[in-house]
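[Meeting: bench + compute handoff]

Bench side (C.D.) handed over the final construct sequence. Compute side (W.E.) agreed to return the predicted structure before the next meeting so the bench team could plan truncations. Sequence as handed over:
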Amino acid sequence: MSDTVALLQAALQQLAPEHLEIHDDSAAHAGHAGARSGGGHYDVLIVSSRFAGLNSVARHRLVYATLGDLMKTRVHALAIRALTPEEL
C-alpha cells in the first residue's frame, strides 16, 4: 500500500465507512501532467450512513472536504463512488 493510499484511508475514517476500497491507478497515468507533479490517480468506493439524504454532488463534496489538503498535494484525480449501506 502506498503512503498516499494510507493517508486517504486514514482521512476517510472520519466518515465512519462500513466499507472502503481505494485503488491506486497512478501507474496507468504515467507521464500525465498531474503524475509528473506528484499527484496520483485514485478510485474510491466508500459506503457510509453519512451519505443518507445527500445527492451525489453533496456526497462528493463531503469526500473532498474530508480529504482536505490531500486533494491539493497528493491527489490529481479521484473517482468517487459514495453509497449508503442500503445502496450497496
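W.E. noted at the follow-up: The chain has a mean pLDDT of 91. C.D. will use this when planning the next construct.
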